[in-house]
Amino acid sequence: MRRFFQILPMLLVCLPLWADGTQLGTISGRVTDQSRAAVPGASVEVVNLEKGLTRTVTTDAQGKFIFPLLQPGPYKVTISLQGFDTFVADNALVQVEKTTIINASLRVSAASETIVVPGDVPIVDKSNAAQTTILTSELAQQLPVGRSYQALALTMPGVVLPGNANTNANVHGALFTDNLYLFDGIDTTDPTTGGFGQNFAYEAIQEVSVTTSAASADYGRAVGGIINVITKSGTNEFQGSYDEVMTNDSWNAQNKGFSPTSGQSFARSKLNTLVRVHSATLGGPIWRDRAWFFGAYEWDRATSALRQTVDPKAPQDFRSVPHDHFYDVKGTWQIAPSKLVVLKASGSPTDNIVMDRQEGGINAIPRFAGDVAALNLQNQSSQSRALQYSGVALNNLAIEGGLASSKIHVDFRPFAGDTPVHQDLSTGLYYGGPSIVGFLERERRQGDISGSYYRLLWGQTHNFKIGADYQSVRSTVDQRFGGNQLFLDQSYDLAAGTTVPFQRRDYDEPIPSASRGKTIALYGLDRFQLGSHVSLNVGLRGERQTGTSDIGVQIVNTAFVSPRISGTYDFKGDGKTLALVSYGRFYQTILQQFDDQFALLPPKSGFTVFNWDPQREQYLFGVHQVIGGASVGVSNIKPTYLDEFSVGLERQNGRNFGISARAIHRQWHDLIDDVLALSPGGGNITRNFVNLQEAKRRYDALELIFNKRFANDWGAQFSYTLSRTRGNQFGAISSDLANFDGTRCRSAIDPTIGSNGTIDCGVAASTNREGDAPYDRTHVLRAYTAYHLPVKSLSVTLSPVVTFESGDTYQRQAILTVISSPGIPTGSTVTYNYDPAGTDRLPSTYQIDFAAQAIRPVGHVEVGLKGEIFNITNVQRQIQASTTTWCNAGGAVCQDVRAAYGAGTSRNAYQAPRAFRLTALVRF
After folding, report:
1. Which domains does the chain have, with CATH numbers?
2. Which of 617, 659, 724, 841 is 20 to 30 A removed from 104 (C-alpha atoms)?
């Protein structure tokens, strides 16, 4: 491996470099005569039908030609040679990272007629075996879906979102922290949490591409999905739009049912207020055929429907009223026919979001907040800037690179008051105060440059790539609990206003900290053919990652190499019927939250424990506990990685239809976890991070996909995924596995656990951990379509969407407190599973949505109206288990706990009622 990192820099000096993936596409093909003999020296011209860009090459000795680094969009391909008819492929579509094949058979003709045929569309691509699904704005604009790229990504096969979770999805068994979020190829992933780091104006999105398996060596830093947002560019025509999206809670159906624990009706008080989202775009030429601009701006004050906290007896209502101001600006300059420069900027500030940040969550809908005092208000902003270049020299040397930066800043403040937090140990819910007061900030600076060299060797065209990618990140945090205190209670009765105390933690004053990290990746690959049927992609990616704590101590210093190989077999030689196979090793970047744990005093890590004495009816000093600084250790930590195998079949029928079937197996290795140990007196917690060998995770799936590109008045995609995600560890860098082995743990409410409520913590932490992941969805069926129907002077489009998914998994649990050797409860806890992970599952859910859009031309302007209905049948099945705690003992507390187990105790635990949305739009 050391030799690999010595050789690659020398190769980089010798060869041009290419970027981490590409945001452009390719047209290639072969020209023959009627006897199928190669036609060398033919002139091939491609013209971008939207921008007027023109490039020309001549065919080689085998009649082959290639146009790399083409902007996505429609092209006209003209092939001509003296003495032959001229061949024209009109409206050939170029898509990101796909190769559009244009093969031509020229007929000898003295008259030189022009033969026009429809250009090809790369529904399947024999040069790229990656499982990549693309949803274009042309189709997305018709569908009844959320107005965000995250919502569009959720329409893709292999992507799931646990019930009422945030918009960070799980992809092919990976955690929501394992995805790579790209904005025109620029990494905008949150470097600390691994979630998405930026929003975008919806009308600026040209397409969303999601790669879920078999990614080639030019992608790294993630084991989940690669979500790539391609934004719009200006064209030779001035074009613009204005949309006003309107909702009103009074239009929507009422919530059904009653709480099974409190008996309260889920019916909400509707707010008869028109919520308006405004969106405007404008794009066009700065210099016709040479330079273009595009801009989008979106603003709103989006009052939510009445939401509810999850207390089993007295849920409380609240509203969220966030303010959005999103902008995207992009300039494109074609400085020469084969040289392109792009400059872009975007920002997405949102203020006054109500969030449930308890248990480290980032949900706008409560999962752990028992009352409104446990909620947070937050202002968040993100921005990115990028400069990118792509160019082709001598038509066989393609160069692409860029510089970019992104920044995230979030301020947290109490929703109700800066008061102490209470956790009810019987339910796991939080009350009284917010879990976060303070701020966080994350920055990423990056540069990538790489190149591709096309060379004919032994009668076959090879595409050699070699590239480098540099990332520098910083994570700053300054956070504390509300009131800087946390109370653990045996029970917390919100309705009666009473508690049964157990423990109080007075936290040390928080100290701001900032960790830093760097990653450099070097990779090389070769795409080539063996004969006329076999296409291969063989690559190797090497990465080196370092990270330092807030006091400059190096925490991460690791290097690794990941091989990738994939291939297709073209049964008929026409690139339309393919068998594919792939193997890849994918490494997950060690998130910056890992380095944050080694701060001199990590947030909320040092506190004084006071335990409740029921006889004296007062809190008594227990111990001062610290996790941080010198008590946190790590030795030779390696990034988590997975080995992935996939096999499949793909078939393209005509220009616009495609079907595929693929089986995927993924096995995780070197899962990072912490091992906690308690000092004899309980005053110090040692925390050592290791690659925990007993930690397991795997994913197996079969995916079936039918795709119809939006053309000839309709488009559609149908997908079915049968999958299983199993293991015993589903945390980013920590779980209860191997914690406090040999130390006693005690239940505050259930004496049936162990011996009179006391059990070895190591036993408790490992019991029943194996099973289905909490985000496992065995069956997922998605179907959406859009059909265009001309009605007199109107252009009407009808778009139904159907989804069916298995429910979330859960199991009976209890929160146990770690006990020091003198028998004093400390400030650490372990979760005990009564049953294997994922034993219980919520009901499967389905939903039918529908949109109808009508547009009428008025001169050079189009005006229209779009109506959307979500959840037409108004089915309101449970999608979230509000509480998963359990207790086998007798008594009123345990009876209440058992009654609430697995129940949906608030209206947000169920599917949202039927809702309506209306959009007025203007296009020119």
Report:
1. 13-118 (2.60.40.1120), 131-231 (2.170.130.10), 239-923 (2.40.170.20)
2. 659
